[in-house]
Amino acid sequence: MQIPEWNEQYHSKHGAVAEALHVFIKEGFQYYTTSQNLDKISILEIGFGTGLNCFLTFLENKNNPIRVQYTGIEAFPLEFLEVQSLNFPSLLKSSEVPFLKMHNIPWEEQSSIDSHFQLTKLKRRFSEINSEDEFDLIYFDAFGIRVQPELWTEEIFKLMYKALKPGGVLVTYAANGSAKRALISVGFEVDRIPGPPGKREMMRAYKR
Ligand SMILES: C[S@@+](CC[C@H](N)C(=O)[O-])C[C@H]1O[C@@H](n2cnc3c(N)ncnc32)[C@H](O)[C@@H]1O
Fold first, then answer.
1. Which residue, 82, 97, 71, 100, is CA-closest to 10?
2. What atom of ligand 1 comes closest to residue 54's alpha carbon?
3. Which residue's CA is minimally distant from atom 20 of ligand 1?
4. What's 115's DSSP letter?
5. pTM for this one?
6. Which amino acid residue places its CA nearest to atom 18 of ligand 1?
7. Please, how many CA atoms are within 13 Å of residue 16, restricted to the half-sphere of its CB?
8. Which residues contact 128 (CB under 8 A, 6 or more apart)?
9. What are φ and ψ of residue 20, in 5° steps?
10. Which residues line ligand 1 (CB under 6 A)?
11. Residues 93-113: tens digit of each pLDDT
12. Hey, which end of the chain has fewer CB within 10 Å, N or C?
């Protein structure tokens, strides 16, 4: 199932790669892995969607590989035809083999994309996440608050807080006041930091 107005969101996202590189790779993955000496990291992605963030993380991890356990949550997976029409591998001048593998692997079980990268895709709603102290880093990439206000709430952020290990970090492209207040009210410490090109700010939230 794909809801038409969401489709629009994917395609109207100009500069999706530049934005994802800034928000999730630079301010999430690089921030977390360079602030401590890690040999592994577990990442939860809220909204697997096109797999772009997953693919960018995979490519980034090739530079100085550590073991990545990546879990992507998605209630409405893309059709394979839609996936094939995405040009991320050529845009990123990289092989499409791992990208297609990310989409072809079965749901609900862990698969190896390469020797350092394990991916588990879970087909479920964000409200059904019940992990506890499991993840180092969350990429919170839900559609915006105007499209899906119910996802930027205390109820959902409580699940995020619980899913993170102490010391864990959540990054999101959003910086609006109500999302910030909801994050703080469930226990996060929140920084507004410079956003990607065209967006003044984004947020990074910490479970201390
Ligand atoms: C902004 S998109 C994610 C983009 C994705 N991170 C990427 O790299 O392409 C948000 C995703 O959340 C999914 N979604 C929306 N509501 C959801 C819900 N309640 N539970 C699970 N997935 C949901 C949508 O289908 C969509 O793929």
1. 82
2. 8
3. 125
4. T
5. 0.95
6. 125
7. 19
8. none
9. -65, -40
10. 6, 47, 49-50, 52-53, 73-76, 125-126, 141-143, 148
11. 999 999 999 999 999 999 999
12. N
To which residue do tokens 């910490």 refer?
206
Using the atom order of ligand 1, give the atom closest to the CA of residue 125: 20
How many angstroms does the Cα of residue 151 sit away from the middle of ligand 1? 10
pLDDT, tens digit (0-9, with 9 covering 90-100), for 60-93:
999 989 999 999 999 999 998 999 899 999 999 9
As a residue count, the chain comes to 208
Q: How do residues 13-55 score in pLDDT, each as one tens digit?
A: 558 999 999 999 999 999 999 988 899 999 999 999 999 999 9
Residue type, 159: L
- Give the ligand 1 atom nearest the CA of 45: 6
CB 163 within 8 A of CB 25: no
